[in-house]
Amino acid sequence: MRIGLLQINPVVGDMAGNAALVEAAYARAAAAGAELALTPELALTGYPPRDLLLYQGFCRLAWAGAEALAARLEAAHPGGPALVLGCPEPNASGQGKQLYNAALWCEGGAVRRTIRKALLPTYDVFDEARYFEPGQAQDGGNVVEYRGRRLAVTICEDLWNDKDYWPHRLYPVDPVEAAVAGGAEALLNLSASPFSLRKQALRQDMLSAVAARRGLPLAYCNQVGGNDELVFDGRSAVHGPDGSVAARAAGFAEDVLVADLFGSVPGRLEQDGLDPSAEIWRALVLGTRDYLRKCGFTKALLGLSGGIDSAVVAAVAVEAIGAQNVLGVLMPSPWSSAGSIDDSLALAQNLGMATRTMPIEPLMQGFDAALSESFAALAPGQGPGTTEENIQSRIRGNLLMALSNKTGALLLTTGNKSELAVGYCTIYGDMSGGFALISDLRKTQVYALARHINAVKGQVIPENILVKAPSAELRPGQTDQDSLPPYDVLDAILALHLEKNQVAAEIVAAGFDAEVVARVCRLVKFAEFKRRQAAPGIKIAWRSFGSGWRMPLAAAPLP
Amino acid sequence: MRIGLLQINPVVGDMAGNAALVEAAYARAAAAGAELALTPELALTGYPPRDLLLYQGFCRLAWAGAEALAARLEAAHPGGPALVLGCPEPNASGQGKQLYNAALWCEGGAVRRTIRKALLPTYDVFDEARYFEPGQAQDGGNVVEYRGRRLAVTICEDLWNDKDYWPHRLYPVDPVEAAVAGGAEALLNLSASPFSLRKQALRQDMLSAVAARRGLPLAYCNQVGGNDELVFDGRSAVHGPDGSVAARAAGFAEDVLVADLFGSVPGRLEQDGLDPSAEIWRALVLGTRDYLRKCGFTKALLGLSGGIDSAVVAAVAVEAIGAQNVLGVLMPSPWSSAGSIDDSLALAQNLGMATRTMPIEPLMQGFDAALSESFAALAPGQGPGTTEENIQSRIRGNLLMALSNKTGALLLTTGNKSELAVGYCTIYGDMSGGFALISDLRKTQVYALARHINAVKGQVIPENILVKAPSAELRPGQTDQDSLPPYDVLDAILALHLEKNQVAAEIVAAGFDAEVVARVCRLVKFAEFKRRQAAPGIKIAWRSFGSGWRMPLAAAPLP
Q1: Backbone phi and psi for residue A186, each to the nearest 5 degrees, phi listed first
Q2: Same domain for B323 and B215
Q3: Which among A169, A290, A395 has the least Cβ separation from residue B398?
Q4: How far is CA A416 from CA A311, A429, A441, B71, in A?
Q5: Catalytic annotation on A539?
Q6: Residue A522 included in any domain
């Protein structure tokens, strides 16, 4: 039985547009001989629809859209392949959450059957228990008979609870066991599994293990594309009953993969590199391109400081939407080095993007004049310090936002995760912008990515940007390391504290200096208010700031 | 049996401080003859601890703190009342989430028993399924024998699922039924139930109904105080077996209520008004005071525009932390009316707070000069418009943040919910600030609150501020109603769309003009990016922006 995996890139909430994507992909699969077609999870609404699901008017429209799509497919392809379509299903039981996260078995022009997701991820960026009632994983309840075969339909997390694979299971039931008990001959999985670093290796290994353990072929259809902070990396696949990868769709791109589910015909196997910087590059480019497109922007702008962060952001933006659509803005102050300006101009020239230069010294003087009397009255004897540095940064934020407002280009903010973690950034200043695309990359990862970019795109980032000491250039001779531990130390501590959920004592036990650890953890805590007002970025790490980071503000520091 | 309800105001994450609050309240209760003491839900960590719970080092500390507290109480009060203490309990089963949301029965110097919350709210601002494994609501499993009585321990939501009370139940089980099956003679409830408008009437009615239906007395101990966006209103109570309120603690203040659980001794019954503006006033004052205190601020500042919003915010701030700790900043532009300045000065004088005045015209000219060439090049022929209005607002934001940075006073932002809903506000401009205390009040609610303030505090808000047409004063002669529908219409549409989850067609069916509804819903959708970067506010409505509002950004508009 040939199965078509419709790896589409939906827009959240755009049921008509997403149905059209499914139709087009279905037609391609049918033309390639597919007898059955599978979409990603919640394909009709796009994943994650989040609180749109709290609007019953929205959910009714999704259901009606599914029924209409089923009818249209039959009209265009009479007797064609069944479609297993991800769509929220209203819960008519009168108890519990209003919806199920369902797979709709569409055949002969109608929705014939629904299978409901049993395991609802409610951790990190996932909030499924907020919206959905779990389906019951009863023996055979997820098995559909189709053209002489017994096919088990599962949805994403349903496959992620094998008791032999996971040392710690999150759920007491396993829908795969229910499928096996029901005599399933193959496992189908509708998925919306977002990218994070090292996820694909885990995912492929886990899917292989489940297929091999059950001795069943497994077809896995993942969503692709950027939706806010999440980038879905596709890589839909068919595994053989021995666990081997029999066919794999493209990573980070739309695709339709048609492969034989039971037979021995070799499928198409897209190459799939797992080098961290290469993966990050693909994720950032796709995530940025989709965020702009799905928000209705065609142009972007950013401030170029001469540093590594803005250089990398510029390179991503140019790759995502083309150099002609990206503007770099130089806003030198008296503390800017000549190198910063030259390096920025060289970068822009290498990338082929336009620049504008607007010195900010007159505005700095204007703010000094406006504030000096108040400062003298309210804080007598205090000299210039962080306040004045922040003023510079906020002048630049105002200029950039003015250009954004005037031209309709989205302002990209350029801060990295190390800065955002410890608050080495100015709220309403350099944090201004609609999308913070490298805000989940630690500084050391930014450097590695820059080297990768230069390797694959030619030396677009000038060597000088790669080798100079990082500096905010907000006072004469300043460097980041005046205020922060060396980045390799800082980043290693942050990885343990932010991504492994370790408290200070555990990090010290791992071999770091107690005073440095205490200082870093304190900085992280007291920058929480900045992160609360930060622009969304692209999730790269296992655990990231953003929608999956829910820390209290008016709280005591962690121990 | 006399029971002490320890209505404390914990700081999230401050286990040592919260244990000290419990100890002090316990001592008061014991001195008043209590034989049993009850804390709020998760009293030792404060509620909601949010992602602090993902740190095992934090949870271990909480558990150790509970054991130490039990021992200290016994040492100080040998043979004293048992304490039922809210605290997270590690899940040692090796499966599922790492924690239970538990009540610890502390007696004789140790934790004798734990009872686990069975119903885990996962909606709106609540994320309990993210952290906790549910307890099992087995017959009698939540019943503790103590001094000859069978007492059922429940935690917050556990009481909120009576099948006769609720037309739509969220959970299939009811811990109260398990308690009754176990022969319970009274229901105890540890709660952290946040304030929202009309919640207290529902809560008291529901608790009465549960007590009366089961014919059991009910003791309910609620948390009090502001924790980030949530204000907990206290109002702990004892209900008799007929449902009547036998005793009630203070609203919006710490309290220890000691009352007879089974006897007929009348308890203390604090007066409790439910006038909406009066409740809002108490919630805002407590929420603002606690946010500042728990973040370590003693001073606040805000921009005074001469409008109703900043007037109300100033009045709340003065009530919360004292006039001597609040600074008002006037930043007139050429478009500011003389009335705005006079009204602001009169307001400040009435409230007894200091002001500073900083005209912004020179800075507006500075930005014009910095930007004119770029505007001419990038947007030829475009005249002044929203961009220039935003620049003014961002100049003010920069000045206010500079004063905040220099003086260590928290900047209060003054926007209301109507503005924030439709995006009638400038990101990084008037949205700048650490706390947006009226951001969950629609404009019409702000007016009603202003009249309430004048009624209870004397005419502190000048009449002129109450009667003039609302205006952002960002261009000559501007009023809000140039851009927006009349506020009574706008607010009514927003209430349906934001708080009743109605889509446009439903709102039109309720009698509103289709074109106006479509425009308002579109504005709400396209202001989502501003709300993503907004300061936290105080939750007042049933459904609010903030942590319980989780909308996608790069998404299609709702139907």
Answers
A1: -160, 155
A2: no
A3: A395
A4: 12, 14, 6, 47
A5: no
A6: no
Kindly state whether residues A441 and A402 are assigned to the same domain.
Answer: yes
State the sign of the Cα–Cα–Cα–Cα dihedral A390, A396, A398, A404: negative
**B135's tokens:** 């307890």
CA dist B523 and B527 (Å) reads 6
Q: What end-to-end distance do the CA atoms of chain A give, in Å?
A: 57
The total of other beta-carbon atoms located within 10 Å of residue B369's CB is 13
Are A283 and A426 contained in the same domain? yes
Collapse the DSSP code of B504 into the 3-class scheme (helix H, G, I; strand E, B; otherwise coil) and give the result. helix
Residues of chain A contacting B122 with CB distance shorter than 8 Å: 122, 127, 129-130
Q: Any bridge partners for residue A503, and if so which?
A: none
Domain that holds residue A376: 279-481
Same domain, yes or no: A29 and A166 = yes
Question: Do A406 and A347 belong together in one domain?
Answer: yes
Would you give the DSSP letter of residue A470? P
Which residues, listed in sequence order, are joined to residue B101 by a DSSP beta bridge?
A: B88
Inter-chain touch A226–B554, beta carbons under 8 Å: yes
| B 516-535: CB under 8 A from A | 529, 532-535
Q: How is residue A250 written in tokens?
A: 């493209």
B117 catalytic residue (yes or no): yes
Number of domains in chain B: 2
pLDDT digits (tens, 9 = 90+) for A190-209: 999 999 999 999 999 999 99
Looking at residue B477, its pLDDT comes to 86
> Does the distance separating the beta carbons of A290 and B378 come in below 8 Å?
no
**A313 and A237 in one domain?**
no
What H or E segment, with its residue span, contains residue A24? helix A15-31
Residues of chain B positioned with their CB less than 8 A from the CB of A394: 394, 397-398, 401, 428
Is B467 at the interface with chain A, CB within 8 A?
A: no
Q: Verify whether residue B156 is a known catalytic residue.
A: yes
3-state secondary structure A45-114: CCCCCHHHHHCHHHHHHHHHHHHHHHHHHHHHCCCCCEEEEEEEEECCCCECCCEEEEEEEEECCEEEEE
For residue B503, being part of any structural domain is answered with no
What residue type is assigned to position A254 of the chain?
Answer: E
pTM across the whole model: 0.97
Q: What is the pLDDT of residues B73-117, one digit of tens each?
A: 999 999 999 999 999 999 999 999 999 999 999 999 999 999 999
